[in-house]
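agent> fetching stored inputs for the magnesium ion docking request
agent> found them:
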Amino acid sequence: MNPATNYQQLVRNLEYLKLKQMNLHLNEVVDFGIQNQLSLIDTLIKLTNYEIDVREQNMIQSMVKVAGFPHLKEIKDFDFTFQTSVNQQQILDFLTLRFIERNENIVFLGPSGVGKTHLATAIGITAAKKRTSTYFIKCHDLIQNLRRARLENRLEARLKHYTKYRLLIIDEIGYLPIDQEDAKLFFQLIDQRYEKRSTIFTTNVNFKAWDEIFQEAKLANAILDRILHHASVVAMVGSSYRLKDHFTTESE
Ligand code: ADP
Ligand code: MG
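agent> prediction call returned; pasting tokens
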């Protein structure tokens, strides 16, 4: 059997090292290098960039996937002309992720359908794409999970798990009442993240009425205190985007 040519050896090496993209683009990059009289270094940069680009892309996709967003709506899908109660510049500032650097929170407050979850998700997707560990969860599910963990004697581990995310999005606080025991679990999580990690909250309940969600004023205050100490509150008003077409049809 003829010994392998150097070219064949190189292809085998790339296969062995699982450098699939470099293998895929090898001929094209070698041709390009020769035609343009590139140095070896420049040719290698071009070749390795193919591998890096795909890996970055995969990494971003998996960061977004594990974050568990309810949908993949981004800021480009948000119509600021429909939702005029938000300051667009403030939302764009959130997208710079400056608030995460400063361990600050964001609260989207407003009635159903005004775009709270959409904006929270859009910020979360931006963070995940920048490789910030991000997780989206509905408040009710979060509490269920903490409660189950406590029953199974692994509350500490669960709290630690939710504390480690650089950005946690807790959606829909107040849609369902939370009993006192559950409120204590929620408080523990908020307390552990306080001043260490950023959290985005969405709620349809004014802060004054949080006593009713948590069914105890002292606990509600302790929770609110920590959430609001370093937070931007985005109060949103307007009619539901979900119903906008109904209203237009009716008024026409
Ligand atoms: P909320 O969480 O405030 O109840 P959502 O963010 O879930 O509301 O919004 C309801 C639906 O309407 C979603 O499909 C969302 O993408 C869409 N939506 C809301 N506001 C806007 C907007 N200003 N531009 C585009 N889509 C919007
Ligand atoms: Mg919502």
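agent> quick read of the result: The pocket of magnesium ion (ligand 2) is lined by residues 116-117, 171-172, 202 (CB under 6 Å).
agent> awaiting further instructions
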